[in-house]
Design brief:
By secondary structure, the chain is of the alpha+beta class. The protein has 5 helices and 7 strands, in the order βααβββαβααββ. Helix 3 links the parallel strand 4 and strand 5. The radius of gyration is 16 Å and the shape is globular. Bound molecules: coenzyme A.
Length: about 170
């Protein structure tokens, strides 16, 4: 069952635990409440009263293009379709609110793709787009399976060889 997290802010603690575990960085309950408050859409997925997934949309380019941040499924419940379900539902709600595009950045800080092997200064972006490979379960492929396209790569965004992969979907 989907719930509006803005109306169920008591789930902020669960979200802070999920984000801290998944993103290797500490998210306090206050950080999460701030994130929820500034979200355009804030969607949770509940099963047996347990929050097992969360998706948020943040303002990016006025009311036209929004950033998906974060999308997260509790680790025990991954790979059974919940991430895709959350994505479809947040896209459906966004479309009803006349959102045109969803963008997201998916960092590769731990060499999960082959992108660290490219010389970005001397290689065309189109060649790199065509030759990206998933080495160790980087989520960019999850997004591609859900209709997102790689719209850009920010080389060394998080340090040498640690790019951010930008993905985009138009809600047509
Ligand atoms: C990324 C995430 C949200 C995916 O949710 P999920 O519920 O596990 O994904 P689904 O079960 O809906 O997967 C749909 C498809 O994507 C694939 N997929 C899911 N995660 C993947 C990954 N990390 N790498 C490659 N493929 C992946 C699945 O195998 C499935 O493929 P199939 O349709 O061919 O069987 C989830 O793994 C997660 O919360 N990860 C930690 C947080 C995170 O990295 N969020 C994204 C930040 S950009």
């Amino acid at each position: 069952m989907f719930i509006n997290i803005k109306e169920n802010i008591n789930y902020a603690k669960d979200i802070s635990i999920m984000m801290t575990e998944a993103f290797n960085s500490f998210y306090s309950i206050d950080d999460v409440i701030e994130l929820i408050n500034k979200s355009f859409i804030s969607l949770g997925y509940i099963k047996n009263n347990i929050l097992i997934g969360y998706a948020g949309l943040l303002y990016m380019y006025s009311n036209i293009t929004f950033e998906l941040h974060p999308l997260i499924v509790k680790s025990l419940y991954r790979n059974i379709g919940i991430g895709s379900k959350l994505l479809k539902e947040i896209e459906r709600e966004a479309k009803l609110k006349n959102v045109l595009n969803i963008m997201l950045g998916s960092d590769d800080e731990y060499f999960k793709t082959n992108l660290h092997q490219f010389d970005f200064n001397n290689t065309s972006m189109s060649y790199i787009f065509d030759n990206i490979k998933n080495i160790n379960n980087h989520p960019y492929e999850f997004y591609q399976k859900n209709g997102y396209k790689i719209a850009g790569i920010f080389p060394d965004a998080n340090g040498i060889g640690k790019p951010d992969i930008w993905l985009w979907k138009q809600l047509v």
